[in-house]
Structures
1.
Amino acid sequence: MTSVEQVVFLAANVPWFGSHSGETAMLPHLSRLTKLKTIIPRESVSRRCVGKLYSMFHGWPPRNQYISFSELHASMLYRSKKNSVFHLLRSEAHPDFLSLWDEVPKNIVSTIHLPVALWPEEYRRAVSRLSSVIVYFKSEMERIGSMMKRPNVKFVHDGVDTDFFTPAPSRPQAPPRILYGGVYLRNEPMLVRMVKRLVEKNPELRFDLLVPQHRRKSPALAPLLEHAAVTWHAGLNDEQLRALYQNAYLLLLPMNDSGANTSIVEALATGLPVATTDVGGIRDYGGGTLFPVVTNDDDDAMIALVEQYLSKSGWHDEISRTSRQFAEETLSWRLVAQKHMQAYRELAL
């Protein structure tokens, strides 16, 4: 193969993403650069049955059989289109599929999203077989490469739909609203401590917490369930999600670890300044350069940072402007699609 003639995507459904969130928002831009085929798990009785038979044939443990069916589809295409690049957009969902090879062919490209510490043993074994890897964070590139038989790892930024996630036409009205969103890898105890302390010092503050209903009663978040300064959100459509970003003054997102983070790239695109912790891949998305970061669980430093945003409106607005600029110049899916094409040429040809 001398050029990328076609890209076949084995994608995954992420139920909490709308049509403008997540990697599948890149596909329309990539389709302008190459021929594209996308395989996405879809639910049906026939797909579940065929997927189960495929899993049983390989002796795989109980798993999502819709994903298994999509892997069967991809393997059949692979046999007939070996001059194509096959891209597993969320390789963490496919450790059993990757076990079909002792050494995965280099034109099967896998994106890694998760920090190494979170990998189950079966995924570690799968990564050891990979030949071509894209990562969304630099902090563990060398470590990931050391786990592979033939290390070939490229960094590409996660992207964001900068045409949809845009700044509000005018600054949100008082009182200032602080946004928090998500569940995975979040430092929820730190969030609770921040909300309580910030409201004690700044009673006018209001907090919007975008958290699934089933998660709100967790021991960590339960202390905020009836808090007067907190409004809970879940099940939003794309426009409602964008409005949350646009109406907020700050994204408060304490993290325990991070690869790439969808909440952060969407905040950057809307010009929403970010207050987060210095973990994982945060620095690849502006942490420490575009916006300050604090040590995880350093409550005093986080309080001081939030209060600096609240008291220095000019500084806040400058970070808002440069955050949007960074998103447009680095994270736009149009640009990230071009970077993926370059990665395919370097990894798979």
2.
Amino acid sequence: MKRVLTAAVLIPVVLAIIFLAPVPVFALFVAAIALLAAREYLGLLKSYGMEPFFNATYIVIGFVFLIAVIVGIQRPGLIPRSALIFFLPVLAIGTLAVFALAMRRSDLRAAFPSAALSMTGVLYVAFPLLLIVETVLRAKFDMRGRMTVLILLLFVWIGDTAAYYAGRAFGRHKMAPRISPGKTWEGAVASVLGAAAVGVLAWQLLPRYGWGDDTTLANWIVLAIVVNVAAQAGDLVESMIKRGAGVKDSGSLLPGHGGMLDRIDALLFAAPAMWYYPEIRDLLILFHIR
């Protein structure tokens, strides 16, 4: 019941932010999610015996989103598709700064892994969410960017819901019992089918709104499958991190869902898969799958 009530409150808020909020507000919302998730990730590192660099990591993440918003608003479409032209330099400078701070730690044996894993959190959490912001920034003058974000969320949400109910009803074969005992292959297949159904729906409806009219049904289904498989991999990766840390949830921010990182773990892998869809589509065309 807690899980359902939390979703009932959060989903309308998320949809309102996606479709109604100005771009800076949308970016600020996503940045806040990134900071909350990063905090939980760094907290998990402490269970591994690390001494994470909380403040330095927050500063790097905030700087990444600040640059993205400034550049995106001033020169929409300027940020390249890979979003690496400004992310990698900030990550590199931030990493060097954290390593410099690590030299001041008394326990030098733990200083290096603590610094490295802290900055890994920027790549793990901030970069995928940055791609979501850039999706909207690239298309700030129409609804295509926002609709792309919605489709991404539906690929993840519908797949997750299908996996949950199918797994409870028909799940017999464990997928990764050491990492996530509740996940089954039956649930995984149902998740893929649920995402594919979203792809079919998008193929039918989006051309009416001037988007997707040049995309075939086969491409939509392949996109749905790729994004869904990536989402399931993201879920398993976070489960592995939690299992190693000896905790059930990354936090307790969202009743019934655990922490923020628990809620967006699948999205952290699904967003890059969705982002690189044009390249995937070009590869499909190269092999004459249209």
